[in-house]
Amino acid sequence: MAIIFALCSLGCSAVNDFIFKLFADRPMSRGLFFSIIGVILAITMAFSVDMKAIEANLNNTLIWGCAAGFFSIAGNVLLIEAMEKLTAGICSTIYRLNLIFVVPGAMFFFDEHLTALQLSGVTAAVLAIVLFSFSAMSGKKKSSIAGMIMIVTASLLRAGMGLSYKQAFRCDVEEPALVFINGLFWIVGGLIYALLKDRKIKLPDMATVGFGIVSGLFVAGIVFFMAKSLQAGAAGVVLSIAQMSFLGTLLLSVVFLKEKLEKFKVAGIVFGVAAILLLALK
């Protein structure tokens, strides 16, 4: 069952990244889009939150919940901004290669040791990003350079969220509480994003609401199935499977958005798969 749950989480991630790309190509309020996702996420998690557990560990819950929430909304804002400038396949793959930052971060903050296989994985991930850079820069557009900077930074922020979660669990913080706080950050962060980008906040149109609700349900699905897979199987196995979601996003983008698969992109995907497999090994 662990593999099935991990594949469900993979599917939710793949479709959600594709939804991000579809929304990024439309002239609608991204801030309100994120706020709606946050509402859905907070509502779905509210039923699982144990208030007694929060009260017993309030400081750690707030500190690490806020840290993870900030990294989460900031990373996703940059992800959708990068998707306006780059293909969904490139953005999704680099975003899921956040393990390249998680591994050295875990070494520094948690005194974990880097194995030879994991070092090979970091090298493969760097090569994947370099190859995607060649692919993105083939047109020599300034927007492509900006997009690469955005998506690499988004991957770094996503790693920060993962490390914050790890520290939270070391401090016995409940997962539903963390995700609920993440939802609140998406609501508030989305409104701030709308103010900065749109210069105003107005009622969202039905298309934005629809995109937000659907994406919010898929985000909730990612969290739900990931938790179930971790309960049923080994973390190294299920997490490595879930991180392969960029393959699903790439397939959807090729089929529905007619994104091209040229040699640098294919090579980058191969190195990306190798990196995640190697980084998941002990």
Structure, explained:
This protein has 282 residues and is an all-alpha fold. The protein contains 13 helices and no strands. It has helices at residues 2-24, 30-46, 51-56, 58-85, 88-96, 99-110, 116-136, 142-170, 175-198, 206-232, 235-242, 245-256, 263-280. Helix 5 runs parallel beside helix 8 (142-170). The longest helix has 29 residues, at 142-170. The protein starts with a helix and ends with a helix.
Write the layout of secondary structure elements.
Blueprint lengths: L1 H23 L5 H17 L4 H6 L1 H28 L2 H9 L2 H12 L5 H21 L5 H29 L4 H24 L7 H27 L2 H8 L2 H12 L6 H18 L2
Helix pairs in contact: 1-4, 1-10, 1-11, 1-12, 2-9, 2-10, 4-8, 4-9, 5-8, 5-12, 6-8, 7-13, 11-13
Please report which band the strand proportion falls in: under 5%, 5-15%, 15-25%, 25-35%, 35-45% or over 45%. under 5%
Instruction: Output mean pLDDT.
Output: 88
Alpha-beta classification:
mainly alpha
Along the chain, the helix and strand elements come as HHHHHHHHHHHHH
Radius of gyration: 18 Å
Number of DSSP strands? 0
- What gross morphology would you assign? globular
Biggest sheet statistics? none
Main traits of this protein?
mainly alpha, 0% strand
Summarize the structure.
The chain is mainly α.
